[in-house]
Amino acid sequence: MSAERIPTSKWDTPANVSVISADEIEKNHYSTVAEALSHVNGVVVTQYGRGDTSGFVNINGSSRVLLLIDGHKANPSQEAYIGAGVYRDQNAGLCDLSLIPSLKMIERIEIVKGGASALYGSDAVGGIVNVITKKGNRDETTVDVNYGSWHQYNLEATNQGVKGKLSWFVTAGLGGSDELKHPGIGKFYYNYNDYKDRDLSIRVDDTFSDRNSLTVSYMHKSHDFADDLVTDYYNMYNSSSIEYKFKEDTSTPGWIRYFNNYHKGRNSGTDFLYGDSRIQGAEYQNGWELGDRHKFIAGVEWHRVEASSLGNGYDDKVDTVASYIQDTISLGNKWTVVPGLRYDHDSAGYGNNWSPKIAANYRPDDKTKIYASWGKTYSIPTIGELYMYYDGFTSGSLWQLGGYYQPIVQLIRNWEGDATKDIPRSTLGLDPETGYSATIGIEHDFNDYTSASLSFFQNKLKNSASWHEFYSTIFQQYIQYIDNDLIQKNRGLEISFKQNVSDRWSYDLGYSHTSLDNDSKSGDWIYRIMYGQPNGYRLGVHYNLGKWRANLLGVIASGLNDAVFASKSYGVFDFNTSYDFTDRTSVYFRTLNFTDEDYSNVYSGATAPGRFFQIGATYKF
Questions:
Q1: CA 365 – CA 446 distance, rounded (Å)
Q2: Residue of 597, 621, 619 lying closest to 607 (CA atoms)
Q3: Poorest-confidence range of 76-90, 140-154, 212-226?
Q4: Contact at 8 Å (CB) between 180 and 195?
Q5: Distance CA 412, CA 407 (A)
Q6: For 604, which of 94, 199, 217, 587 is 20 to 30 Å away at the CA?
Q7: pLDDT tier at 426 (50, 70, 90 boundaries)?
Q8: Is beta strand 127-133 parallel, antiparallel or unpaired with respect to 166-177?
């Protein structure tokens, strides 16, 4: 599992872990990873439109979630600017799902809830989303085509094959949509909804032996958004990686890999407010079994993050070098203790950081596990945050480039006097976000058909980056800036219950509660209850009869701030059904939000797509 960076079963992992399998993705005909994640208990996803493949993930009350593809970092966003008043803990989250391979290429998605900075470093504060891609294992081609409301269309083809020790898995797709229908107001023009998508994903594996293999992957995605009222937006993502794996037939496998992820954003054909970002890295991990009790792993990493927006005046890069160690200690047949330690050093001037962790797992019997974990969390500011300074009177952004930022701030200070006393003299004075994350939980199988789980979490994050403002008497407008004096203290719980009633029927229920307690030393003007599910409820009812399948899925939330959301509560229900004519041909139908519920975030602009219908067919040959 991703939680320990070595192969472990879910029952032996001392963490709150959820897994979305390829079978679950196929049976529900999910169109995006964001849609699949939104049905996981305790995970909140903010999307800008029904067909949009992007989405910002929130776990344990935090959007500082690390996105991995086959174990390597994939968080693409380094720009802080999404719109006035938006910052990392709202919708400019680091875990942007845009850079994700096609769902047809995904073997499973592992979600680890809770801080994992000790093993994964910056960004793994709220948790981890690790997307594992498929390895070709047979000769097969699949075509999937669907059409739905708002003229939404998708055409996708996959091909996998095996030739000797060489295998491949390839997907290619195109899609598009007109403006969505917003509940209550009809057609809604928004730049993230009238879109065209193009994607290509390739994975090639060369298996030298049972112990050694080489994997080469490439992915391209492009999103082109435009409508009658908003200028054109274009986003393009390229991702490539090469990985050599060794000792694959042991419990402590190793690897050496290199990856390179690139994002280009454009607004009306220019880089105004948008730009380019890149993350590349080289990683090495090895492990050793020390007797019957110890599984020891160690690794080193080099990451380089680059971000530029020439129209806004910044172009910078940050290098990070890290190392980590971990020991999985077996104490008899029931206890497992996992201590770990990570060291980070970056070129941004934040010095050295040590992140310890400790976790324990207790198995009183074969059907129960009790676990607990604690770890230090650590996250340095993004490049966009280091340079951002937004001002209302010029309707644009002022960026620190060389020595320009300091004179601008000082000039405003001279004009405004005490009104600006809380503005930092240099945004480069932003401190790293530090804190801790703790989790405790229990999982139990009552029998082969019924299971339940309960978990509690608490985390604290100091120096959280947030927006502030003061009113300019000279310009008679608010001037805004980023500071990191916000202290976040989040805590909550999750309860899940699953049961197979018969061979035909099964259901699952989930409840999560998240309490956000945020203190700001100088008064955080922008922070409101942006979290979309203070109380979240999940419902799944599943029916399977031979060639027929049907699923009813529900996401319900209550306790929302009605100054931010359309209402204090909402309930969104989806239904899908499919029929297999043969082993190779099937048709499916979906209706999403069939009650036409309005659950939009009116403050950030994240719209609630209305009632949606879709019909599609899949053919394999």
A1: 11
A2: 597
A3: 76-90
A4: no
A5: 9
A6: 199
A7: very low
A8: unpaired
